[in-house]
C-alpha cells in the first residue's frame, strides 16, 4: 500500500457561491494530490461548519475530494484538511486569529493562499 501526498494551496472561507447560508458556513480547500504514481493537480474539497458553533471545537464536515475517485484514506485526509483550515483561521491561525470573547464574527469570501504538504497512507 502506498502513500498519498497532498499539497494544499489555498482556502476560500465561508463562500455563498459554494453553499454558505444562515445555517452552515461552507468553505473550499484547493489542493493537488500524488498517489499510486498518478498526479492530480487541480482538486478541491468542501468544508462545512455550523454557523454560531464554537469555532475552535465544533466539528468540521469534510467532503470527498472533487476530481479524484481512486483509493484514499478519508479519515487521514479529513484530519489534514482540518489542521490546514484551523491553522489559517482560529485562535492559532496564521491568517486570521480569532480568540475567545471576540463576539459573534462572520466574514465572507476570505481567500488565503498558503502552501502546506502532508503525506499519509492510502
Mean pLDDT across the residues is 85
- Strand elements, count: 7
Broad structural category: mainly beta
Q: Ends: how far apart?
A: 7 Å
Gross geometry = elongated
Count the DSSP helices: 1
Rg is: 14 Å
Strand order of the largest sheet: 4-3-2-1-7
Can you walk through the features of this model?
The protein has 122 residues and is mainly beta. It has one domain (3-98). It contains one helix and seven strands. The chain has one helix spanning 74-88; strands at 3-13, 24-35, 38-50, 61-62, 89-90, 96-97, 110-121. The chain has a five-stranded antiparallel sheet with strand order 4-3-2-1-7, with helices on one face. It has a two-stranded parallel ribbon with strand order 5-6. The longest helix is centred in the middle third of the chain and has 15 residues, at 74-88.
